[in-house]
Every structure is written in structure tokens, then in C-alpha cells.
Amino acid sequence: MNLQLLLASAASVGLLQGFLHCSGMCGPFVLAYSMATVPKSTDGGTVVPPSVWKVLLRNHLPHNLGRVTAFTVLGVVFGAIGSFLNVIGATTGIEAIAGFIGGGLMIWWAIDEFRTGHGGAFVEKWSLLQWKPVQRYLRQGIHKSSATSAYLSGTILGLHPCGLLFAMLLSASSTGSAFRGGLTLLAFGIGTIPALFSVAIVGFYGRKRLQSRTFAYIAAVFIGLSGVLFILRGLAVNHWIPSVSPWLF
């Protein structure tokens, strides 16, 4: 798939699902982190001085950078795996094998999202967030007003293997390139930032937020279409079908 189209698709999925999926999954931690940075008055009440925005930015910017860093590294790893699969495929006369595998799994994820409303949910049982030491570290990190602690906490949260991240990593693998895989997850991660900043600064989580499944379905369509394009690219590279469009492939 054309790199610009791939990155635009990844960023769009991150933006759409950020408000629906990421704000719900990561929102409780992000909101707790925000509330912990708000100073307390001597009588126990909450005060909101003008500098509170600087405090939030100082903590949540590195937190989001940590998440995006984790996403990007995972994208590089999965892109490299896809590249390795392509090398193996080339020795057997089947080019772009990563596109076939990743594209097929992306379509499966999109169908599962429509069918269950939580595509690829099975991967979440392997989450780092279920480990007691990690839970302890995150609880302690909430009360630390440190950019380093915020960055590390964001990195840990970025390694949480949710179904949406699983779908994006399949997309990275399907590129067959560590570089393109990393850029794909970088674009996706940047796309999720507006939603989590909304949770952190506006207190979006726990109030009225987007409950409609519309955005989840739109994101699933993006991912499913990407899967179709990766499979078509694999067919075209093997000369099993004519190249439909050089811009797409």
C-alpha cells in the first residue's frame, strides 16, 4: 500500500478509536493521574491554580510520548517479522507473504469487531497490566510529579496488548518493512493523543462521552479495507492479478 495512504489510515484509526476505545480502556488511569497532580488546599479542598495546565502538560506530554514510543518500537518489531516472512516466502516463490497473512488477520479482526464489538479481545489476557509488580509501579507512579515516571508509565500502558493494537500490529507486519511498520504505529499513536489529552485535561472520562458504535465500525472498515489492499498487493506482486493501481500498491 502507498505509504502516505497507509499512514493516513493508521492516524485516522487512532483518532476515531481514541475517543471510543482508548478513552475507555486507558481513561481511568489517565484521569486518576490527572487528579493526583491537582494541588490540595490546606483545608482538604481541591484548588485549581493557573499553573495546573502546566502541571498536566508536564506529566501527560511525556506520558503520551511513552505510549507512542512503545507503539513505534512494537511496529518496528512486527514490521521486521513481516520482512522476514517475505524473505521466506520469496524462497518458495510466494512474494509478499506477510501481506497475505497480515491482511487476512486484519479482515478477521474487522469482522470480529462487527460481530462482538471487541475485535481481538483474546489478546488482552496477556496484558502486562495484570502483573502485580506492574500494577504496584503504576499506582506509585500516579502520585509522582516526574516526567520520567510519566514517560515510563506511558510506555508500560503502550505495551498493553489490546485488540485494537493487535490489529494495528498486523498492519505493521503486513508492510513487510521494519521502517514502514514503525511509521504506521507512530501515526496510529499520534492519532490517539487528542482523546487521551481530552480525558486528562477536560475530565472527559466519567462524563458524557461518545457511546455510539459508529466510530468503532468506521475504524473496523478502515482496517478491513487495509487488509483487502494488502492481500491484493500480494496477488499483484506474484502476478496472479494485474496491478490495480500503482498508487495503492
Question: How would you characterize this protein structure?
Answer:
The structure is a single chain. The chain has one domain. α3 runs parallel beside α6 (147-158), α7 (163-174) runs antiparallel to α8 and α7 runs parallel beside α9. It is built from 9 helices and no strands. It has 249 residues and is an all-alpha fold. The model is unreliable at 204-211 (pLDDT under 50). It is elongated and about 60 Å long.
Give the tally of structural domains.
1
Structural class call reads mainly alpha
Give the fraction of residues assigned to helices: over 70%
Radius of gyration of CA atoms, rounded to a whole number: 20 Å
Indicate the overall shape: elongated
User: What is the N-to-C succession of helices and strands?
Assistant: HHHHHHHHH
Number of strands: 0
* Sheet with most strands: none
The amount of beta strand, in percent, is under 5%
Could you name the ranges where pLDDT drops below 50 across 5 or more consecutive residues?
Answer: 204-211
Question: Distance N terminus to C terminus?
Answer: 4 Å
Number of contiguous helices: 9
Overall average pLDDT: 79
Supply database-style keywords.
249 residues; mainly alpha; elongated
Quick structural gist:
The protein has 249 residues and is mostly helical.
Task: Summarize the helices and strands and which ones pair or pack.
Layout: H1 3-25, H2 27-37, H3 52-91, H4 97-116, H5 132-142, H6 147-158, H7 163-174, H8 178-202, H9 214-237
Helix pairs in contact: 1-8, 1-9, 2-8, 3-4, 3-6, 3-7, 3-8, 4-7, 4-9, 5-6, 7-8, 7-9
